[in-house]
Amino acid sequence: MRRMTLPVLVTLTLILAVPAFGAEPKSGIGFGLTGGVVDSDSLSDSLSFSGFALFGKIGFTDHWGLAVTYRDMKDDENLAFGEDDSYKQTSVHAVYMWRPGKIVRPHVKFGIERTEFEAKLPPFPTLSDDDVAGSVGGGLEVGTPKVAFFGDYDFTQARLFDEDFDIGNLTLGIIFKF
Known about the structure:
This protein has 178 residues and is mainly beta. The chain contains one helix and eight strands, in the order αββββββββ.
């Protein structure tokens, strides 16, 4: 009897989930331009970064979903650590989306982000560090149920090079839903 419990639960879950996937598309993939601000007590000024973001979203219900994002950014000013500073982030967030209308859909999110920071100052060796930390944010989608423009902001506090860094990211892009 125990061997049948898992397959029965999976089958029942899939049957119950079918109506949710038959409604308005809630899952999709997208890309965008992203900018980040990194700040710390040890920095005299905040560092500005820019780059791109790729992401995917899976909607489980009309309101709840899961978002996975990858960001790759370079230092805009090259002032603090050297000639070629960069950071990459991979994040997983639970997302709650309100659907007050068909055109505008605000959301909040919470999850984790992995931040990889790299500083290159030739001729010195490259410095790199990474951290995984909690993250919160929110945003807005505007468009049709199949294609929408979005704005998204998230904040995390990463421990890099034995220092606490506040990192805020703003992404603007487009999402294609299916």
